[in-house]
């Protein structure tokens, strides 16, 4: 009996899909247009949630954007025209994957630049300390004659070090 329950649980887990925020009243009767609308909705950022597509978001603004996408598609706009309309209205931020241009240059280059700078800093720090991390790459000044005599006196005065 346990095996049957475990098998059923595994099968249900395999068929589980992430919940979508698209409401039944939003779905277009034309299956091809609805598929295009869903694909576009997955590319557009919810302006409220910010790291969620409008396809996944329950926010009222996301619903408004989903309806707007469907209206534009019903009006005969191409996918590119819908995306162009939304980016002209909300900027590149509305896209989950913004294009690389002058406005988004830092967004694309800064993470890689920080990674390279961190790697170079780590390499330079390793070279300063020596390859094995013991610090042998640093300069060591020898003891002066006075310092040697002082150490010898200390060693001679300690009975534990007498051998």
Tell me the β content.
under 5%
Rough outline: elongated
Tell me the radius of gyration. 33 Å
Uncertain stretches of 5 or more adjacent residues: none
- Tell me how many strands there are: 0
CATH fold call of the domain at 22-109: Helicase, Ruva Protein, domain 3
The percent range for helix content is: 55-70%
Determine the N-to-C terminus distance. 78 Å
Main sheet properties? none
What's the order of the H and E elements? HHHHHH
CATH architecture of the domain at 22-109: Orthogonal Bundle
Report the mean per-residue pLDDT as an integer.
83
User: In CATH, what is the class of the domain at 22-109?
Assistant: Mainly Alpha
Question: Which structural class is indicated by helix and strand composition?
Answer: mainly alpha
CATH superfamily of the domain at 22-109: Cytochrome C biogenesis protein
> How many helical elements?
6
Describe this entry's structure for a reader.
- This protein has 163 residues and is mainly α.
- The chain is 56% helix and 0% strand.
- The protein contains six helices and no strands.
- Helix 2 (31-43) packs across helix 3 (60-74).
- The longest helix is centred in the C-terminal third of the chain and has 25 residues, at 105-129.
- The chain is elongated and about 100 Å long.
Write a compact overview of the structure shown.
This protein is an all-alpha fold.
């Amino acid at each position: 009996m346990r095996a049957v329950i475990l098998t059923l649980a595994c099968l249900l887990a395999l068929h589980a899909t992430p919940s979508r925020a698209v409401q039944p009243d939003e779905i277009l009767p034309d299956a091809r247009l609805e598929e295009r609308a869903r694909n576009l909705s997955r590319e557009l950022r919810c302006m409220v949630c910010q790291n969620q597509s409008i396809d996944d978001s329950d926010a009222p603004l996301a619903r408004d954007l989903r309806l707007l996408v469907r209206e534009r598609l019903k009006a005969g706009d191409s996918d590119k025209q819908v995306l162009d309309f939304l980016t002209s209205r909300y900027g590149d931020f509305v896209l989950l994957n913004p294009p690389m241009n002058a406005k988004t240059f830092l967004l694309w280059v800064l993470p890689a630049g920080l990674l390279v700078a961190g790697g170079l800093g780590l390499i330079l720090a390793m070279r300063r300390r020596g390859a094995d991390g013991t610090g042998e790459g640093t300069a060591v000044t020898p003891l002066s004659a006075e310092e040697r005599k002082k150490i010898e006196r200390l060693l001679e005065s300690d009975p534990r070090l007498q051998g």
